Amino acid sequence: MLLEATPSVEQEINPWESAAHRFDEAAERLKLDDGMRKVLRQPAMELTVNIPVVLDDGRIEVFTGYRVQHSIARGPAKGGIRFAPDVSLDEVRALAAWMTWKCAVVNIPFGGGKGGVICEPHLLSEGELERITRRYTAEILEFIGPERDVPAPDVNTNAQTMAWIMDTYSMHKRHTVTAVVTGKPLELGGSLGRPEATGRGCMIVTMEAMRRFGLTPENTRVVVQGFGNVGGMAARLMSQSGFKIICVAEYDGAVYNPHGLDIDALVQHRTEMGSITGFPEAEDIDKDDSLLLDCDVLIPAAHENVITSANADRIRAKILCEGANGPTTFLADSILAEKKVFVIPDILANAGGVTVSYFEWVQDRQGYFWTEAEVNTRLDQIMISSFNDVIGYADKHAVKNRTAAYMLALDRVAFAIKRRGLYA
């Protein structure tokens, strides 16, 4: 999919358009032939399902769900399932493609997949969510499995959601299949270290980037956008390691303290008050202004398209570590490059989650589970090795870090396809 010379605002914030633009740039740099570009650009499979569910009040509602497998050239598809009112097929396509590249960047034997259901989970009871999840699982049952496509939690889904999927799949198979999903409860084959993995991975690659700037945790000011599983965990782990977390932003506001926030106290405040705002040890500021603060590290860890052509020129961070998927639009990339912001792209920065998901899949399949220390040591090794692979690729080819990550990923996936050949 080629873009117009001057993309519209709609194109800039469309994740599939963004993914396509970055793909084309990397493919051109790699001089991929037209045939391989056609294979890699489009998803291998797209499934749309209608999910009839009886609600608590007796009404029948029909929800729409998607599952996209972008590539299975290097192994089973891997990717989360999100429940949200704004889920779209274009979004799921883009996220599936990003999973392909992400798994290739960290060199684990998975392809890319993604799924979603259009619903407003905050307006649904636990029973309604369970019925939606189980019926959705039944509809995609033939397309998932440990050897084919391994879902995981994503936006508004969690370990309980994965337990429902695993149970539904297992009931149809007539035996327990723990490896069909990752991100499960520990008691059902989950892995130690999984809840912290994405945030920990962000911290690991940030510390590697800091070496290039002569920074140590004690003199590094960090702004974290998003205080959920990724941002909240990154903030907590980095605070414990001595970083100065000067600002945390959420959907309803941001809190700022130039001397550093007490993250544990902030977590307690949110638990009691339902919001991070009003934290007595900090100043409330506008959530959008938080991205523009003078800092050493900025971690957007909430959602897509928060750094765009409209605000990229005002970013003042030295290092941008993308904890979320697609937080920076493709038009913002060149602006950040001109400002010499060191970008750790999402397909590297937040790959800690899928890496430990891979560990969980391996442990489930062998029926032997590792200690948390073993998980964290292996994660550390993969994230550091992958960071050096990407930066080395960027230096060798004189390209931006994001372009280097895409080039490395495309090269690995294309190589696998060429070695396998095309079945006819």
Could you walk me through the main structural features you see in this protein, from its secondary elements to its overall organization?
- It is a single chain.
- The chain has 424 residues and is an alpha/beta fold.
- Among the domains are: 46-176, Rossmann fold (3-Layer(aba) Sandwich), CATH 3.40.50; 197-349, NAD(P)-binding Rossmann-like Domain (Rossmann fold, 3-Layer(aba) Sandwich), CATH 3.40.50.
- It has helices spanning 9-13, 15-30, 34-41, 89-105, 126-140, 159-173, 197-210, 229-240, 263-273, 287-290, 330-338, 346-349, 352-366, 372-397, 401-420, and strands spanning 45-54, 60-71, 77-84, 111-118, 149-153, 221-225, 244-250, 253-256, 283-285, 295-300, 317-321, 342-344.
- Helix content is 45%, strand content 18%.
- It has 15 helices and 12 strands.
- The model has no long low-confidence stretch (mean pLDDT 95).
Query: In the CATH hierarchy, what is the architecture of the domain at 197-349 at level 2?
Result: 3-Layer(aba) Sandwich
How many helices? The count is: 15
Our measurement of the CA-to-CA distance between the termini, rounded to an integer number of angstroms, reads: 25 Å
- The main sheet orders its strands as 9-8-7-6-10-11-12
Number of strands: 12
Under CATH, the homologous superfamily of the domain at 197-349 reads NAD(P)-binding Rossmann-like Domain
Low-confidence runs? none
Question: Helix/strand/pairing class, anyone?
Answer: alpha/beta
- Alpha-carbon Rg, integer: 21 Å
Indicate the mean pLDDT: 95
Instruction: State the shape.
Output: globular
Question: What is the fold-level CATH name, i.e. the topology of the domain at 197-349?
Answer: Rossmann fold
Biggest sheet, in brief? 7 strands, mixed
